[in-house]
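#structure-requests
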Amino acid sequence: MNDLAPLLTPEGRALLDEVRDTDPAQELAVATRLRREHPAELVSAALGQARLRQRAVVKFGAEDAGRMFFTPNGVEQSTRASVAAYRARRMAEAGISSVADLCCGIGGDAIALARAGIRVLAVDRDPQTAAAARANADALGLSGFVEVREADVADVDTAGYDAVFVDPARRGGRGRIFDPEAYSPPLSWAVSAARRAPRGAALKVAPGIPHEAVPEDAEAEWISDGGDVKEAVLWFGTDPGAVRATLLPGPRTLLSRGLPDPEVRPPGRYLYEPDGAVIRAHLVAEVADLVGGGLLDATIAYVTADALHPTPYATAYEITDHLPFNVKKLKALLRERRVGTLTVKKRGSAVEPEELRRKVKPQGPHAATVFLTRVAGAPAMLIGHPVRA
């Protein structure tokens, strides 16, 4: 559907309500029935929008997703609502009252900013995307806080706004873009826009951004939600040079203290698996310091310690066995322990988890976790179970 306008009419909205909970398996039958009373293109658009809304629930929640309007790229690339709300809260707490949201997409971040009481200029050059952002601000009762403008961000004067937020496109015709200068617009342009903002700025970038690409005058923050790394943010006007990992819900934030790399040591009773945001932010040393541990291997982000020190920044496992890598020995041990539910985690191993499961054929009432990794450079297997909080 290239135009959302028909879906915004009374007929379109009524049709959207009617197809809201359509089972994908029943779409053909539903479409056939509805086309007797409505234009075929409108029916197709409504069913397509219903599918997008169902996909968007995981990011926006059922209540908001059921009222919003999406494009396929908008669902894929928009910020998860919990992450956008956290970022908007940081801006509001910094005293920012107006933001130019450049490359706004379908308006996920603009919505969060508006809900934090911040006035927003939301800009996107794609007509359909800008229309979706405008419709979403209206659908959620936020049009008084959000002005949507269809324009190229390079042509927009942001002088009247306290801060800017830039979310460059990081996907192209061949998939994800890893070079920050290949973003649209390039990271260098976004940094220039950030430095011109009077009160500060936030630039959303891929979590895999090289640390050397972070400007010296920016704070770098990696964010995870429910254990999944979602994004990195470059903040301007906050704490230049700071590095942090923030875990949602919470938020819980771990700040870099510039610690040296932890020492490599033999496996202890406990293994700690740092959160992905901690690893991306290069803060494994901070976790090792918190738990009094060291590394299993100098190149792998597994921390080992003799004592249990629960921390929100890592998942703790009690280790029962440490073996050199050997599938036959692992199979025999699992059979002896009657392990039928096997979780396989790996770092520094070429063995695929599903391949290992097929070979060991776990059977029995018990559960275990096996780590395929290296210990001081040698392939190893550590068997244990997560420590329950």
